[in-house]
Amino acid sequence: MTVLAIVTVAVWLLAFLIPSGQYDRNDKGAPVQGTYHRVSSGQSFVDRLNDLFLAPVNGLYGIRDTTSGEVGPSLTGDLYGSAGVFLFVLAIGAFITVVFATGALDRGIERLAHRLRERGTLLIAGVMLVFSVLGTVEGFAEETLGFYGLLVPMMLALGYDRMVAVGTAILGAGVGVLCSTVNPFATGVASSAADISLGDGIALRFVMWLVLTAVTIAYVVRYARRVQKVPARSLSGFLPGDRERTATDAGEAPQLTGTHKAVLIVLGLVFAFMIFSVVPWSSALTGKADATPYSFELGWSFPQLAALFLCAAVLVGLVARLGEQKTSSTIIQGAGDFISPALVIMLARGVTVIMNNSRITDTVLHSIEGVVKGTSSGLFAIIVFVVNLPLAFLIPSTSGHATLAMPILAPLADFAGVSRAVVVTAWQAASGWMNLWVPTTAVTIGGVALAKVGYDRYLRFVWPLLVILFVLICGFVALGAAVT
To answer: Chief localization class (predicted)?
Structure first.
């Protein structure tokens, strides 16, 4: 939030120096290549000062005037602010918090780990796969911090080292987020900012998730087997007592009650229904972007999804018999816990409002157009991926990064003849790749601290995988751009 506050002021100051300009728009509101021309912003200093003052407000519920294109809280036109995504983030936060309050998800993962405790390879693969699935559908990442108390002793008991536990948690969930299919905090926010459906590009992202998850699991399993065979090859080393642990230290298998099972079924059905409701099935199955929607397609977006997760939170409370008071308080607590990413989205959107009202967005777009002009579609997609790497380092929040970058990146896809969904995929891959190792994320630093592994040793462990994933990502986004 501090970074975005600084960015807001910096962009406001730069707007005095960057010349105003705009593109002609087509029927869909997309800029037409080659039509950029200089215009006057028509703003006085007081107007610009007012935009800076109201930036967060406009970022939440600013209305874009249909005639002038100006954004303000009391104008008439279309919603430009992020109110829809803002409420959606709070709603899914409430739902996830209620699910965790039942203990069902924690207990389910613990039971899976315990049942596979004597089959090390299956344990690593099974837990990483579950974490990756949760990462790709709901951004499961920080939640892994609660499982180190289970994973570290389990891995040591099987003859592995602490690095295996770190790799299982950070890389398992991280590769899922990197290849987000319908993750609301990455794909959802980016798709909204790019003005496309959450389901656009899901086929490419799903295949990418399958391949990169398999590669990541194989990488961790290979390291684990090497350490089990020759403990001296451990990159993390062993603390006193680590080598004396046995499989009996794992304790008794946690039991899943009928309530836990029911909650897990509801959880699975809710996310399955979310995927069904947002996917443009006619386009996905025919390969034609303008295919006529099938009768069963819902075409849901953020308003409907926000309502879905609010209702699902209440449903989980009823199924788990939490009672009216605890269900209500947990929903409020969940919305409160997720207010941070929601506010980040609002602040980032406020930056784009300043750019819009001072009419410099198209000028910035025009300058980048000159850089990518003439490049092939595949090279364009790779450039989008690479350009977003330093931005992901500066703004580790996927929601804030997406809201800030997409208004510029998405129209570039139109100029390059590439689907905007490919830009979303390239962007989220950059954000996810950086968050596997950068020290600005709680998932990485918190994970190595809980496992008592040095951060420098973790970097030694992960860098070959980062290179492999980098190459694969470039291949996938280039392929996606060529296909579309």
So the answer is: membrane
